[in-house]
Amino acid sequence: MTYRVILKRGKEESLKRFHPWVFSGAIARIEGEPEEGEVVDVFTAQNEFIAKGHWQIGSIAVRVLSFKAEEAIDSEFWKRRLATAYAMRQSIGVAGRADNNTYRLIHGEGDNLPGLVIDIYARTAVMQAHSAGMHLVRKEIADALNEVMKGSIDNIYYKSETTLPFKADLFPENGFLQGGSHDNVAMEYGLKFHIDWLKGQKTGFFVDQRENRSLLEHYAKGRSVLNMFCYTGGFSVYAMRGGAQLVHSVDSSAKAIDLTNKNIELNFPEDTRHEAFAEDAFKYLDRMGDQYDLIILDPPAFAKHRDALRNALQGYRKLNVKAFEKIKPGGILFTFSCSQAVSKENFRTAVFTAAAMSGRSVRILHQLTQPADHPVNIYHPEGEYLKGLVLYVE
């Protein structure tokens, strides 16, 4: 059965600009009673077809899969979209390298597959659904992924227990859709990492900081490095390879500290330059001295939604003030926000205010974002979620 979503008059303008979301407030009526996750066709008030996509309950009512009336959402559709994404990763030199088998293959709206994330870790693909529609077709997508990757993956792990809308009553279970290997060591630019796709955050690793970690490596030589909110210790491992004098990793999670130590040991066995601390970030910043001249602040998302924005900006301000106050003269600060609800302007203002409060002279060296395998759909600017600044502090 075909379900028809009819828009209110004039509400098709964003879809004409290929924005991939239909908001519930734009809908005049629905013909039929689609279940959450089913495909619906979207029509203007003048009864003209404009898009098709997954129906869902909530403010985003339709996540658009196609703007073509004749395009069926079937196994061939998934294969085409996955093949396009894979070809792009190969063409930009992220996939198919001897020194790197860790990258994002599908980045939701950025790859015209809203609600779907797929990360590749060596011979394991970790798939994550953020919409009911993608959850329902996970096995079709896994089959298509096998065809597109042509023997370069053995395992597909599905990890969506915490990412699906809870109102949908889907009761997803994490587990392997294919294979079952627990060999979880992958390589990023010649460095090895244990990937915790079973219980770790996101798909098990923060793939989106790869290029920023690589940049940090170039600044690490001879410096004393503090990696706050270290999680798996990615920045710490790169700082070690970059020739840092000492590296301290801090995270409130003892499990994260354990993983950080394992990753340091994997790459730099018995290297005494590194030490890790399981401690609250603000408490650590309060008690530490001024021994660091390279600090990384990469906190978890302080704002998951717009309602939390004010408190999030206060958090960023407070965090950065402490770093500005304690960092050595001539120090370098890498500071980030991964909250989609926090705009680039919001984040900059919070950091600039913190710099002014500290009274230090600060210069911007780099303005950072997510890497090319986390592309931003030009029609969906909301996809630019990672913001970062590299600052020189006199």
Summarize the structure.
With 394 residues, the protein is of the alpha/beta class.
Report on the structure:
With 394 residues, the chain is an alpha/beta fold. It has three domains: 3-66, Archaeosine Trna-guanine Transglycosylase, Chain: A, domain 4 (Roll), CATH 2.30.130.10; 75-189, RNA methyltransferase domain (HRMD) like (Transcription Regulator spoIIAA), CATH 3.30.750.80; 206-393, Vaccinia Virus protein VP39 (Rossmann fold), CATH 3.40.50.150. Helices cover 28% and strands 27% of the residues. It contains ten helices and 20 strands. The strands form four sheets. Strands 16-15-14-17-18-20-19 form a seven-stranded mixed sheet, sandwiched between helices. Strands 2-6-5-4-1-3 form a six-stranded mixed sheet. Strand 17 (294-297), helix 9 (309-326) and strand 18 form a beta-alpha-beta unit. Helix 6 (234-241) packs parallel to helix 7. The longest helix has 18 residues, at 309-326. The radius of gyration is 22 Å and the shape is globular. The model has no long low-confidence stretch (mean pLDDT 94).
